[in-house]
Amino acid sequence: MSEATRDVSRWRSVWRQLPLLVGLLVLWLLLWDHIDVLTVVTGVLLAVGVTRALYLPPVLLSGRFNPWRGLLLGLRMMYDVTVASLQVAAFSLWPWWKPVNSIIAVQLHTRSDLVTTLTAEATSVVPGTVVVDIDRERGLLYLHALGTRTQSDIDRTYRHVLGTEERIVLAIGTREQAEVVRAERRARRLSGTKHVSRPHGRDPGTSDGPSQNGGAS
């Protein structure tokens, strides 16, 4: 690799990390509750130190943001949280309702740490579902889902997680990731199946209901 190519790759890496550095700097300034030269300089040094010195997987940002897809993602999140909150509230007030919960394994379409983290956070924000474990190597999310009495309930939860991942990828993912989720969506529509299968490996089980696997390859 030539020196010029290495310089371009280095600057591209810095550019992709820039939003993370800015976010850490803003967090530092909010913690101090005032802005001056010293806090800004120390915040920049701390942000660079956190991203460079600590042993963490690199957060690779795509450098791409689709405003329309981002708006749709935000609106869908608000809708899901509102509907799920009403459902959970109704269940808690219904005296004859007996919950049947499950641990569902969902195979994501991408292996991006950022997309996996955002999908897990967005899933856990919605009442009734919470991510309890992540298999980073295989791209699996294990989540505890409320009210999964039938296979159709499990399939619906599975599709909801994949839909969340798809909306996140289309908003901020790379073009390659966007093509992957679009191809998966077209395949599901053409096949007419629910794209549900069982993952390899140990079933984590559950203490309050039968353990169910929502899918993996």
From TrEMBL:
The keyword Phosphoprotein is annotated on this UniProt entry = no
Bias-annotated ranges (Polar residues): 208-217
Q: How does it sit in the membrane?
A: Multi-pass membrane protein
Which parts of this chain are annotated as the region Disordered? 184-217
Q: Which InterPro entries match?
A: Cation_antiport_E
Where are the compositionally biased (Basic residues) regions?
185-199
Q: Where is the signal peptide?
A: none
- List the transmembrane segments: 14-31, 37-56
Keywords on record: Cell membrane, Membrane, Transmembrane, Transmembrane helix
Q: What is this protein called?
A: Na+/H+ antiporter subunit E
Its localization reads: Cell membrane
Provide the organism lineage as a comma list.
Bacteria, Bacillati, Actinomycetota, Actinomycetes, Micrococcales
Q: Which family does it belong to?
A: Belongs to the CPA3 antiporters (TC 2.A.63) subunit E family.
